[in-house]
């Protein structure tokens, strides 16, 4: 299980090796994704809080990347964080997520991206529930729930 110190180490030094890589041109991404998905996943946007597909959804399944279908989060790690976005405590695997420092919007945050195709997912914060204390705050437009 990952802890905040692991997240910082990955963002600062080196992320885990992805299981594979998916690379596409921006035209290919635009053809595959809806305009909202493209704005968030490729241009690092965000969606309105509370008015997104998975904020209040707790059906069992696995959440996969909208860009490449890689498994990112299990519904068993999803919880109600009152943040307005789907929140998870852990990714499905240590190498599912890539971490990067993000100084945009006059804030210091850690961005989370799909480690396979670099789609922007959201951010991770150290204010999640114990025992690990992580809160992965993820845009619904960047993920899709599938049956496990």
UniProtKB/TrEMBL annotation:
GO biological process: protein repair; response to oxidative stress
Keywords: Metal-binding, Oxidoreductase, Zinc
Chemical reaction(s) catalysed: L-methionyl-[protein] + [thioredoxin]-disulfide + H2O = L-methionyl-(R)-S-oxide-[protein] + [thioredoxin]-dithiol
Tree of life domain: Bacteria
Protein species of origin: Hymenobacter oligotrophus
SUPFAM superfamilies associated with the record: Mss4-like
Annotated GO MF terms: metal ion binding; peptide-methionine (R)-S-oxide reductase activity
Name the record gives this protein: peptide-methionine (R)-S-oxide reductase
Gene3D superfamilies named in the record: Peptide methionine sulfoxide reductase (2.170.150.20)
Family affiliation: Belongs to the MsrB Met sulfoxide reductase family.
Known cofactor(s): Zn(2+)
InterPro entries: Met_Sox_Rdtase_MsrB, Met_Sox_Rdtase_MsrB_dom, Mss4-like_sf
GO CC term (a single one): cytoplasm
Ranges of residues in domain MsrB: 26-148
EC numbers: 1.8.4.12
Pfam families: SelR
């Amino acid at each position: 299980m990952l802890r905040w110190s692991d997240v910082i180490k990955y963002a600062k030094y080196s992320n885990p090796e992805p299981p594979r890589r998916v690379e596409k041109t921006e035209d290919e991404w635009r053809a595959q994704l809806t305009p909202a998905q493209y704005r968030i996943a490729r241009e690092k946007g965000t969606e309105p809080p509370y008015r997104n597909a998975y904020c209040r959804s707790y059906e069992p399944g696995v959440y996969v990347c909208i860009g490449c279908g890689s498994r990112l989060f299990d519904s068993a790690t999803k919880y109600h964080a009152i943040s307005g976005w789907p929140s998870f405590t852990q990714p499905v695997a240590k190498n599912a997520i890539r971490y990067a420092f993000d100084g945009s919007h006059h804030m210091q945050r850690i961005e989370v991206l799909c480690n396979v195709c670099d789609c922007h997912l959201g951010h991770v914060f150290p204010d999640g529930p114990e025992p690990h204390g992580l809160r992965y705050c993820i845009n619904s437009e960047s993920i899709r729930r599938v049956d496990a």
